[in-house]
Specification:
- This protein has nine helices and twelve strands.
- It is an alpha/beta fold.
- The protein has a ten-stranded mixed sheet, with helices on both faces. Strands 6-7 form a two-stranded antiparallel ribbon.
- The longest helix has 27 residues.
């Protein structure tokens, strides 16, 4: 069966971020992707210079109206990432509400990009929209620790705190929550990042089950852009292929990331030469070169199951 995604994210002419980071890997895995570009920039903003345009809420609405008038507004998935304007985000919400009404099984994957390490990237007035309107619509949510804390009002200092925060996020709407990065210490040392996931599954017979997992992810000493967008896209793809098995979906997602990042790191260092730090251009993700790893990732990182439970219907 054809599986179609509406992806509303940023676009760059050169390099990989937003839709450029998500579309090719999803297409390689067999998905049809309809992209709406929230911005169109020459390159990502980590370069010394960038130029481009920002799509307004009215222009977004106009593009969606065109799709609707042709009666081709049927989607299996919606994917959203970085958005920095409140009115734009509110139009996104109304589009998702309309599409969910038209296709009850539609799955919304939301990367609530708001900030990291205590720093907001977006205006503060977006937080209530995410909290009250976006997250309740989401089926899969991929915040980092800072974003999860913002959404729930709870701090994460221990693994138990992280589990509690994921449960609070479940209560807000999403059945699958992945904390893509946390500041929790890894037992493997400083070179590893701790990520956690939680999935609630409802079975046709009325029973339900839940699973919580944890993963120590090897870190690479460089700043990559577009990795979060790739992560959300791959989580969409692999949860589609393993709908009730977050552990496998998470392992394949992170393994794709590892293959892409390591290939990029090796290439960037070769291009920069000994003793030089690679430039933003040299650190653009080696996406095309990673096609085989995206299609069939060898699992290089394993997740640990923290909790597993099943619940009978009441």
């Amino acid at each position: 069966m054809e599986c179609r995604i509406l992806s509303i994210q940023s676009h760059v002419v050169r390099g990989y971020v937003g839709n450029k980071s998500a579309t090719f890997p999803l297409q390689v895995l067999g998905f049809e992707v309809d992209s709406i570009n929230s911005v169109q920039f020459s390159n990502h903003t980590g370069y010394a210079h960038w130029k481009g345009q920002v799509l307004t809420a009215e222009e977004l609405n106009e593009l969606y109206e065109g799709i609707k008038l042709n009666k081709v507004n049927r989607y299996d998935y919606i994917l959203t990432g970085y958005c920095k304007d409140k009115s734009f985000l509110e139009v996104v919400v109304s589009i998702i509400q309309e599409l969910k009404k038209a296709t009850p099984g539609l799955v919304y994957v939301c990367d609530p990009v708001m900030g990291d390490h205590g720093l907001l990237y977006v205006p503060e007035n977006l937080l209530p929209v995410y909290k009250n309107e976006v997250v309740p619509l989401a089926d899969i949510l991929t915040p980092n620790q800072f974003e999860a804390e913002l959404l729930t009002g709870r701090k994460i200092k221990t693994e138990d705190d992280a589990v509690e925060v994921m449960d609070l996020l479940h209560e807000m709407g999403p059945d699958t929550v992945v904390l893509t990065s946390t500041d929790l210490p890894s037992k493997h040392g400083d070179q590893f990042l701790v990520a956690l996931g939680s999935q609630k599954t409802r079975n046709p017979d009325g029973t339900s089950s839940s699973m919580k997992i944890c993963m120590d992810i090897p870190q690479v000493d460089a700043v990559f852009v577009g990795t979060g967008d790739l992560f959300a896209a791959m989580l969409l793809a692999w949860t589609h292929h393993h709908p009730k098995d977050l552990k496998t979906a998470f392992e394949k997602t992170v393994s794709v990331m590892q293959h892409v990042v390591k290939r990029t790191f090796t290439y960037a260092n070769e291009m920069a030469g000994p003793g030089n730090r690679p430039s933003a251009a040299q650190l653009e993700l080696r996406m095309i070169q990673s096609k085989a790893d995206i299609e069939n990732p060898s699992v290089v990182v394993e997740a640990k199951v923290l909790q597993k439970s099943s619940h009978q219907k009441k």
